[in-house]
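Lab notebook, bench 4. Still working through the backlog of constructs that have no structural model yet. Next entry is a single chain of 300 residues. Request: give me the structure tokens for it.
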Amino acid sequence: MNSTTKTILAGLAILAALVFYMSYFVVSQTQTALVLRFGDINRVVAKPGLYFKVPFADTVTMVDNRIMIWENNGRPVQDVASQVYIVDAFTLARVKDARLFRETLGADMMQAETRVGARLDAALRQTYGRRSFDAALSSDRSTMMREIRDQLRQEADGLGIEIVDVRVRRTDLSENVLDQTYGRMKSERNALAQDIRSQGEATKTRMNAETDRAVTEKLAQAKKEAEIVRGQGDAERNKVFAAAFQQDPEFFAFYRSMQAYEKALGSNATTMVLSPNSEFFRYFGDQKPAAPAAPAQPAQ
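Model written out:
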């Protein structure tokens, strides 16, 4: 075999190897292959394995069929009261129809993310626009996310994309609305504090009035009991005096006269102008005291 023949055989071998290399492709478990013949879809390969194609006529486009996470952060929306707040959400999606995905979006994932993100903005505005801000922070939030997901699915089905789920990660008021909300909350807290303070003052006034009334009632009751005890003491004293007078009327008259002298003549500056024969001085000198009149018997 001459050198020319060897060169031709080597060239044929290389050409055969090149044709074989260009005739097969491998599909993994995370991919779907689109076999294009002169730009048109010839077949779709969804199962993993080794496949063959026509060299130079067929090209293969691989489409990732794994679940993708598309972030949608800082989306401004308005609630039913026209308050603006910011929503952070993310979408879980995957390609379910590679042929339709190629026909509508050219199998471009960036374009798919842009289309789904635009539809997500509209779904957020529609869903949040029918509710108040408090609904987004309550148990109604799960219902809102399901509504957004269902709206996205209607759009994504026509693109060959399946929306697995939509999650709202954060809902926060915008800076201007947040300041207004803080101001309103502060006013409400101040009004509540003032109301509690007023109730406390009213309770204090009522308790002071009840205490003053109780003190007045107790003082009056004590005075009443004191007057009763004093009256009973005076009655007992008069009773003792009456019993003593009955035992010795002359001594009782003398004792009463001594008490009168003490009160009338106790001061050095006392001046009295009386007749020497006055009844007042019946126990002075050698006057014979007159028989005293019996005092009235005190009431028992």
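Notes after review: The chain is about 50% helix and 20% strand. Residues 213-281 form one domain. Flag for follow-up if needed.
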